[in-house]
UniProtKB/TrEMBL annotation:
A GO cellular-component term linked to this record: nucleus
Any one GO molecular function term: DNA binding
Span list, region Disordered: 119-153
Record organism: Rubus argutus
Record keywords: DNA-binding, Nucleus, Repeat, Transcription, Transcription regulation
InterPro entries xrefs: Homeodomain-like_sf, Myb_dom, SANT/Myb
Record protein name field: Transcription factor RAX3
Limits of the HTH myb-type domain: 9-62, 63-117
Lineage: superkingdom: Eukaryota
Pfam families in the record: Myb_DNA-binding
PROSITE patterns registered for this protein in UniProt: HTH_MYB, MYB_LIKE
Keyword Nucleus appears in the UniProt entry: yes
Length: 262
DNA sequence: AAACGACCCAACCGCGGTCGT
DNA sequence: AACGACCGCGGTTGGGTCGTT
């Protein structure tokens, strides 16, 4: 048999938390901790809330050292880069930003950052279209003087022409950590450490001797496990995952647009 | 000042994996 | 081994706030 039901859904309170509820929850957890059982928590404190709701309130709002709003440019860049690379894995992204919650980052992305990027993307797109149109016109003028070639109608080179307005991938306008497929961009120490920590959390392994993201595929030659060779972001993101639950989960949930697990 | 729409964000919902019975 | 609750996560919602007309 399974466990007893966690709570009676019809008797628990929903909606915004009152300051009194917050105080009760915070003071209890400060003193006693969660006890590893969220479901039992509200009964102990005398809160008419579902354990799940308590957990969410604590993690997203009451927990110490939580930062709200005021995302820095650097945080924006980290969020964007990780989103491009791993998709909407908000908990993983949040792990890279101390004091930020997955919910906060998710909201920030959905309400502001996405628009900010799209705006930037559009500007880039327009500038690119203008440049392309200008050079094409010039090229065609040159050609028309030497051949019987006719200039296309104006509409051919304007933005409404689908030929000239393919959607750029967002990655194309990322301010930092954007990368080209085959470059050999070297990450700075902070970026390396940050990404390394992320991968370690997920079960990745690195060379002990170098303590850096360094090719160690020679070690894996005797093992069925895949080790990471991550001298570039691109390589890191195309390596195979280890036989690890989190990665299995990631692999199945990831869209192949974001990550190829080889 | 009022009405309306857009935006923001806390909280809820549902799902998949884990774990206790 | 099977069942079902628990946990953590990502997606979505709805109410409050802000800006515009």
């Amino acid at each position: 048999m399974g466990r007893a039901p966690c709570c009676d859904k019809t008797k628990v309170k929903k909606g915004p938390w009152s300051p009194e509820e917050d105080a009760k929850l915070k003071s209890y957890i400060d003193k006693q901790g969660t006890g590893g059982n969220w479901i039992a928590l509200p009964q102990k404190i005398g809160l008419k809330r579902c354990g799940k709701s308590c957990r969410l309130r604590w993690l997203n709002y009451l927990r110490p050292n939580i930062k709200h709003g005021g995302f820095s440019e650097e945080e924006d860049n980290i969020i964007c880069s990780l989103y491009i690379n791993i998709g909407s894995r908000w908990s993983i992204i949040a792990a890279q930003l101390p004091g930020r919650t997955d919910n906060d980052i998710k909201n920030y992305w959905n309400t502001r950052l996405k628009k900010k990027l799209l705006g930037k993307q559009r500007k880039e797109q327009q500038a690119q279209n203008r440049r392309a149109a200008t050079s094409l016109k010039q090229e065609m003028k040159r050609s028309s003087t030497t051949t019987s070639f006719h200039l296309p109608p104006e509409s051919f080179v304007n933005q409404s022409n689908p030929y000239w307005a393919p959607e750029l991938p967002v990655a194309a306008v990322l301010p930092v950590m954007s990368y080209q497929t085959h470059d050999t961009q070297v990450l700075d120490d902070h970026q390396q450490e940050s990404i390394k920590n992320m991968l370690l959390k997920l079960g990745g392994r690195f060379s002990d001797t170098t303590n850096s993201m360094y090719p160690i595929d020679h070690i894996s030659s005797t093992s069925s496990d895949q080790f990471y060779q991550t001298s570039t972001i691109d390589q890191m993101l195309t390596c195979s995952p280890p036989a690890n639950r989190n990665y299995a989960q990631l692999g199945s949930k990831y869209n192949s647009n974001h990550v190829s697990w080889g």
